[in-house]
Amino acid sequence: MHWTDINLWAVLVAALLNLVIGGIWYSPVLFAKQWQSAAGLSDEQLKSFNPLKVFGLTFIFSWIISLNLAFFLASPGTDWQWGLTAGILAGLGWATMIFAVIALFEQRSWRYILIHGGYITVYFAAIGALLGGWK
């Protein structure tokens, strides 16, 4: 694969999707209170985080994730359906499983694992479809 096989605009949008999907997933509309409780975080702790650091690093890490998946999906025959499938396989089969292993050793609850694992899988599925379809 070559850099010319990668749509860098799609990679950029896929990285931004992490912030959008995460913003919805961890909002009061979905899992904010459940996640906060499972993570053992107080309201004061949540208010004290550095948004520039957290969102800046999140975007950089998301760009790396998106670029990596884009290289896996750079084959000429890739479409959004294969991208979606590959995203689910990578998100559930790799990323969520290693996260679950770490969380088990940290003695985290299944609720914690399922909230984060669900988010990871949804994010990977979304960017897989995007990267597979936007060539």
Automatic annotation (TrEMBL):
InterPro entries: DUF1761 (IPR013879). Pfam families: DUF1761. The keyword Ion transport does not apply. The keyword Transmembrane applies. The chain crosses the membrane at residues 6-31, 52-74, 80-105, 112-134. It comes from the Bacteria. Keywords: Membrane, Transmembrane, Transmembrane helix. This is Membrane protein. It comes from Pseudidiomarina salinarum.
